[in-house]
Design goal:
Elements (H helix, E strand, L loop, with lengths): L2 E5 L8 H14 L4 E5 L5 H5 L11 H5 L5 H4 L1 E2 L5 E3 L5 H8 L8 H7 L7 E5 L6 H9 L2 E7 L2 H4 L1 H15 L5 E8 L6 H14 L12 H5 L7 H4 L4 H14 L13 H6 L59
Parallel strand pairs: 1-5, 1-6, 2-4, 2-5, 6-7
Antiparallel strand pairs: 3-4
Helix pairs in contact: 1-13, 6-7
């Protein structure tokens, strides 16, 4: 059976698509059978892997609505992985699914038909917390959270973790958070390092090493229809994704964190951990000091509404609820 990883963050521009394409190529290099699923109506993953979404007649839209089996829609890519592509029609699919019973399970049921054909399935979730993202999380065994190392990106992590907790409770109790993957990282700046440290201590999640350094090579690759592992094979970014792929292929768990800790745990610092590329965090220890962060820029701690006690569960996972496409 395929192991399913969702890559999710409701903020756009944090390298979700880049991470899915690069991890897929890296896992293919290791000889694994990989399927990539584009759940974003913008179809950036589809375009990045050399397909023109405007010319595709069949897409994941048809699969989610039960019109076609996934095997008919899947396309091969030059980097070795297969792709379940997206088109702009996927935007209308979300509205249709809202009126259907069991809408959160559409992707999980579709992947069940082809699970035996792949070792890994990587799902590129859209930048929202709507029904498409809920489908990705419901189908997944683990979720990876790309984090652009800036304050505004950091604020959305708490909201996503609340959504993960709701999915675990209602539609997918096996879902685990593998960890937060720092992207667009510039280790020369105190701000980038301070954001990562604050996310680690605030939410008690594993920070996946190595971070993905900012590089123009990532921007160049989609124009060639390939991943950075092909266009800049020896770059630091390509090597970083290879390291993460080896950890995933080796079966290493990024973290056992299921949800954010209680307010009491946050006050005492219990449960903090720092994972190393697929290693288990050291649960129960207080956050260790980090001497190399000499004088980090303070990160404004602005708790999001979803991170507060009593936050309302995203309506997209409540059976029968009528909601808009995003929370």
């Amino acid at each position: 059976m395929a192991r399913v990883l969702a890559v999710a963050n409701q903020k756009g521009g944090v390298a979700k698509t880049t991470s899915v394409a690069s991890l897929g190529a890296a896992l293919s290099e290791l000889g694994r059978r990989v399927l990539l699923v584009d759940l974003d109506p913008q179809a950036c993953l589809t375009f990045s892997l050399g397909l023109d979404p405007d010319t595709l007649e069949l897409s994941v839209h048809d699969v989610l609505l039960g019109r076609l089996p996934p095997g008919i829609v899947i396309r091969s890519t030059p980097d070795g992985s297969d792709l379940l592509p997206a088109t702009i029609e996927l935007a209308g699919c979300e509205a249709i699914l809202l009126s259907r019973t069991g809408r959160e399970h559409a992707l999980r049921l579709a992947l069940g038909e082809i699970a035996a054909e792949y070792d890994f399935v990587l799902v590129d979730c859209p930048p929202s917390l709507g029904v498409l993202t809920i489908n990705g999380l419901t189908a997944a065994d683990e979720v990876v959270i790309p984090l652009q190392c800036e304050t505004l990106s950091h604020r959305g992590v708490g909201q996503l973790l609340d959504t993960v907790a709701d999915v675990q409770r209602l539609t997918n109790p096996r879902l685990r958070v593998r960890g937060v993957l720092p992207t667009l990282f510039d280790g020369r700046t105190a701000h980038s390092r301070a954001v990562v440290l604050d996310v680690e201590t605030r939410y008690q999640v594993t920070i996946l090493d190595p971070p993905i350094a900012r590089s123009v090579r990532f921007a160049e690759a989609p124009g060639l229809g390939r991943s950075i592992l092909t266009t800049a094979s020896r770059s630091k970014g390509a090597e970083a994704y290879r390291a993460h792929a080896r950890a995933i292929a080796g079966g290493g768990a990024g973290t056992g964190v299921a949800a954010k800790p209680s307010a009491g745990d946050q006050a005492t610092g219990r449960g903090a951990s720092r994972g190393r590329a697929g290693g288990e965090g050291e649960a129960g220890r207080a956050p260790r000091s980090t001497p190399r962060l000499a004088t980090p820029s303070p990160v404004q701690a602005v708790p999001s509404e979803a991170a507060m006690p009593g936050a309302v569960m995203p309506e997209a996972v409540i059976p029968g609820a009528a909601v808009s496409g995003a929370v």
